[in-house]
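User: tokens in, sequence out, please.
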């Protein structure tokens, strides 16, 4: 047997990245894209030194205990709420994520979802395909204005900032944001964005865009009370994580037209979708594809691979999410 480190690739990824990893490691890949249970994942990880994960494999105490040889988990996602970071640190397991490479692509998608939602593109397409279009009508699928409106961004990290620039420079929008910490003045000026309280943002934004990471504290950042604060004409876009929005409360607000529309790329308990969301017309639903272009998905897997390579070459991880004691 070779003395190369042994790694597992937990889901199918771009073949060129598998090939690159094969030059450095003894690789077990999963190009058939089997979705393993946590127990099956632990089984597949026996004897492996590292693993390349997507954001869907939970790395917790149970798994770490079952896989004592594991040294590093490289997520090909910027979000890493699938990691129990303290448990990984306690077990001496390095975690890495995949920031930056997906920023612009994800911001493009946030904007696409905003446009589709505000301008009712999916709803009107279904109407046309169903053969219901008989004539022009002055308010047929009349939607909400995007240009010149107020964009409220909750979560002003790299992706939030890229969305702010699209709104401010491309669409002449007034951009307000709320974030754990305020950006410095130069960055605010570059994004043409003003810091406001969450309450002020919800009350004034025509379009509310969620781009914050999921943490237990952020669960249901948008629930019944927050939806009630929004304008009845407003749209809500979630490209962040399921669970940041209370999906049941949102479906109710949409049905009662307490807000105009929503665009959701992520869901509580995905890939399951709250059944009530499937029956309301004023919501655009996409299957967690904000970073899904061929180039970006390859770059995300490539960065996860670079993290594994750098780590096992003793150069340290490139984009660590935890600091291990030496
Ligand atoms: C995708 O959701 C990511 O976190 O990269």
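Assistant: Sequence out:
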């Amino acid at each position: 047997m070779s003395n190369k480190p042994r790694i597992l690739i937990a889901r199918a990824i771009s073949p060129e990245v598998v090939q690159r990893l094969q030059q450095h490691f003894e690789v077990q890949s999963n190009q058939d894209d089997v979705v393993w249970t946590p127990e099956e994942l632990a089984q597949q990880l026996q004897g492996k030194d590292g693993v390349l994960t997507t954001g869907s494999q939970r790395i917790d105490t149970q798994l770490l205990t079952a896989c004592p040889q594991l040294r590093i988990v490289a997520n090909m996602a910027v979000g890493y709420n699938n990691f129990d970071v303290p448990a990984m640190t306690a077990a001496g397991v390095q975690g890495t994520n995949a920031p930056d490479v997906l920023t612009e692509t994800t911001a493009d998608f946030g904007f696409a979802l905003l446009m589709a939602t505000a301008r009712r593109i999916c709803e009107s397409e279904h109407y046309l395909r169903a053969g219901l279009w008989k004539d022009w009508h002055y308010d047929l699928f009349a939607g909400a204005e995007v240009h010149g409106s107020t964009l409220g961004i909750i979560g002003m990290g790299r992706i939030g900032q890229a969305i702010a620039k699209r709104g401010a420079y491309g669409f002449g929008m007034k951009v307000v944001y709320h974030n754990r910490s305020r950006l410095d003045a130069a960055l605010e000026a570059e994004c043409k964005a003003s810091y406001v309280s969450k309450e002020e943002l919800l009350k004034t934004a025509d379009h509310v865009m969620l781009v914050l990471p999921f943490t237990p504290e952020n669960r249901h950042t948008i629930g019944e009370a927050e939806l009630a604060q929004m304008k009845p004409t407003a749209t809500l876009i979630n490209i962040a994580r399921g669970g940041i929005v209370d999906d049941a409360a949102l479906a109710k607000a949409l049905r009662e037209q307490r807000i105009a529309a929503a665009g959701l790329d992520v869901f509580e308990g995905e890939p399951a979708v709250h059944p009530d969301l499937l029956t309301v017309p004023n919501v655009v639903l996409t299957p967690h594809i904000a970073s899904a272009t061929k180039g970006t998905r390859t770059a995300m897997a490539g960065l996860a691979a670079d993290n594994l390579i750098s780590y096992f070459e003793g150069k340290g991880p490139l984009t660590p999410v935890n600091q291990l004691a030496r």
